[in-house]
Amino acid sequence: MWQTFFNGAVPIPRRLGLLQNGQKFAPFVTSQARTSLGALVLAASAKVSSVTLNPPAQATVTYTILLGGKPIAKNQSGTAVYGGGRWQVADTTFCSLLHVAYGKKPKLIPAACGS
Q1: SS3 (DSSP) at 76
Q2: Chain-wide mean pLDDT for the chain?
Q3: What pLDDT score does 107 carry?
Q4: How many CA atoms lie within 13 A of 36 on its CB side?
Q5: Residue ranges with strand state E in the chain
Q6: What is the side-by-side strand order in the sheet with 58-67?
Q7: Residues 17/4, Cβ–Cβ less than 8 Å
Q8: What DSSP designation does 106 have?
Q9: pLDDT level of residue 115 (50, 70, 90 thresholds)
């Protein structure tokens, strides 16, 4: 699930289905997909190195973000949540990544991140 979410070749609607509260982020993701940073994100992927279950319905995921198959952010830590019979990338993890990517432009961070 995690690697699919971070796979730029996977259509955006499917990826949003793998994100907790994904529909809240749909307008942001769709608009940003047409930007230069969005193009970079679509070219990125992720490789999971470990998953630690944290009952009752969370997991800590250690992963590396790759661009062109080369690591650009190693050993990142994120959270997966379980609900509705499936695992999803936690919206807090997605928002944390957005804060890193758009730190110098906080107005671009969607309201769904609580900013």
Answers
A1: strand
A2: 89
A3: 83
A4: 0
A5: 44-54, 58-67, 70-83, 86-89
A6: 44-54, 58-67, 70-83, 86-89
A7: no
A8: G
A9: low
d(CA 73, CA 65): 5
What are the pLDDT digits (tens) for 37-68? 777 777 788 999 999 999 889 999 999 999 88
14: which 2 tokens?
A: 């499917």
φ/ψ of 15, rounded to 5, equals -65, -40
What is the arithmetic mean of pLDDT over 95-104? 84
Q: Tokens for 98, please give them.
A: 């957005």
What amino acid is encoded at 52 in this protein?
T
Q: How many CB atoms lie within 10 A of CB 20?
A: 18
Contact assessment for residue 41 and residue 31, using Cβ atoms and an 8 Å cutoff: no
pLDDT level of residue 32 (50, 70, 90 thresholds): confident
The amino acid sitting at 67 is: L
C-alpha span between 112 and 19 (Å, rounded): 12
Say if residues 61 and 43 touch (Cβ distance below 8 Å): no
Separation of alpha carbons 62 and 50, rounded Å: 5
In the block, tokens 């990544």 appear at 97
